[in-house]
Design goal:
Its main location: membrane. The chain is 74% helix and 0% strand. The protein has 236 residues and is mainly α.
Length: 236
């Protein structure tokens, strides 16, 4: 089962990487007139190259000083922090231009790799992520002051999807929150903490929320207006 889970996750990663390369890079930057068959071929070749590189790099994971999980988190930090910085700054500062996002993306990657891998500082990689975040924020603010957008960015809804909020979203969020608290408090008992009462309370609230959501869903389905065939023909 473990081997199957690993293979499944690896296949999903290859499919995602192939799609991103073929649609996001190849068709936009290399061949804008590429046919769907050509994109599939390019995606397969790129996926094969990534798979070969992954197989060659895999044995070196054994030399990761803090284990595979920590090593993967460090690698994810190369692009996670720049992306998060761009999204946050875009939300709160609508006059920051696209140039700032591009500079922050490149600078964030370079600064993180330099501080965490090339220059040997005795810092935990989470502190490096925090430093990279601060650097990106300062750089984006400076670019926004020097060369701001002519008009603030405004998000325009294309109305392609119904964005009407679910009426029970807040209640469901409470259930998810207490379910998470129940999991953590339940596991904390194995560490010697007396959290049994918190676990029982959290799961009781979660169960109550689930029952309410089931009842609300049942009530919504059965209270929907019934349209008869004759009425529909008359309206038509």
């Amino acid at each position: 089962m473990l081997f199957g889970a690993i293979i499944s996750a690896f296949c999903g990663f290859l499919n995602s990487a192939s799609t991103l390369f073929s649609l996001g890079i190849y068709r936009r930057l290399i061949n804008e007139q590429a046919s769907p068959d050509k994109l599939v071929t390019v995606g397969r070749r790129f996926g094969f190259i990534v798979a070969v590189i992954s197989v060659l790099v895999a044995p070196w994971i054994a030399y990761a000083p803090q284990g595979l999980y920590s090593w993967m988190k460090q690698l994810n930090g190369i692009y996670n922090v720049p992306l998060v910085t761009i999204v946050i700054m875009g939300f709160f500062f609508p006059r920051i231009p696209a140039l700032a996002a591009k500079v922050a993306m490149g600078l964030g990657i370079v600064s993180y790799i330099t501080i965490n891998y090339l220059v040997k500082f005795d810092f935990h990689f989470l502190y490096v992520l925090a430093c990279t975040f601060c650097i990106n924020v300062v750089v984006m603010l400076l670019i926004g002051v020097i060369k701001p957008r002519a008009t603030p960015f405004k998000f325009h809804d294309a109305f392609a999807v119904d964005m009407k909020p679910w009426k029970n979203v807040k209640i469901a969020a409470v259930g998810v929150l207490f379910a998470m608290i129940g999991v953590y408090s339940g596991l904390a008992q194995f560490g010697g903490y007396q959290t049994r009462w918190l676990t029982i309370l959290s799961y009781a609230i979660t169960a109550a929320v689930v029952v309410y959501l089931i009842y609300s869903s049942w009530q919504t389905r059965h209270s929907a207006p019934v349209v008869y065939v004759s009425d529909a023909k008359d309206k038509a």
